[in-house]
Design goal:
Elements: E1 2-7, H1 12-21, E2 29-35, H2 41-48, E3 53-55, H3 64-77, E4 82-85, H4 94-99, E5 104-108, H5 120-127, E6 131-138, E7 148-155, H6 162-185
Parallel strand pairs: 1-2, 1-4, 2-3, 4-5
Antiparallel strand pairs: 5-6, 6-7
Helix pairs in contact: 1-6
The structure holds glycinamide ribonucleotide.
């Protein structure tokens, strides 16, 4: 299955997906990595791994609709069948969701439905949760609220900083995202999030 990976920054989840895709027994390959932000580290990392990269700067378009129309067109040109959001920090509207209905995944650094949106680790520390983690879910029109596919739990330490918690969770993100994509591509996850193995 052809993946289109959308990024906005560092791209470490994109790298984890690319490393998984490089294995002989992995059922997907990255057709294109697209960033909406120029000059980000993720674009350099993707190019260094020999992946096809594209920049679609949302600021070059008059509105969200025009930006998404170009994004859809580009992903279709690369024959993308599954869109993987990997630190992609733009909201996607109904137009985009419809174009890839049930074939858009996202990784989020909390145990959803807790702490959707931004300032995720700050929220976790402010609430004093003892366990946080990460979630791979299907993307719907509702922010961070689509069906949950896979999660990993991570302990929160007594004196945790945002950076320390984020790093501990990121390690798990790099494990579960490639695994969720594999399960999805192999048909073990249905569009309602149920794991059928
Ligand atoms: C990751 O922690 C990812 O879960 C988060 O942004 C980071 C991107 O890192 N995504 C979100 O918060 C989306 N709501 P990366 O660019 O190194 O993969």
């Amino acid at each position: 299955m052809n993946l289109g990976v959308l990024i906005s920054g560092r791209g470490s989840n994109m790298v984890a997906l690319a490393q998984a895709c490089a294995r002989d027994d992995y059922p997907a390959q990255i057709a294109v990595v697209v960033s909406n932000q120029p000059g980000v580290a993720g674009l350099d990392k993707a190019a260094a791994m020999g992946l096809s990269t594209e920049l679609i700067d949302h600021r070059d378009f008059p509105d969200r609709d025009a930006f998404e129309a170009r994004l859809i067109e580009l992903l279709q040109q690369h024959n993308v069948q599954l869109v993987c959001l990997a630190g992609f920090m733009r909201l996607l509207s109904r137009r985009f969701i419809e174009a890839f209905r049930d074939h858009i995944l996202n990784i989020h650094p909390s145990l959803l439905p807790s702490f959707p949106g931004l300032r995720v680790h700050e929220q976790a520390l402010e609430h004093g949760v003892r366990i946080s983690g990460c979630t791979v879910h299907l993307v719907t029109e509702d922010l961070d609220a689509g069906p949950i596919l896979l999660q990993a739990a991570v302990p929160v330490q007594q004196d945790d900083s945002v950076d320390a918690l984020a790093a501990r969770i990121l390690e798990q993100e790099h494990q579960i995202y490639p695994e969720a994509v594999r399960l999805f591509v192999e048909g073990y996850l249905n569009p309602h999030g149920a794991l059928s193995i």
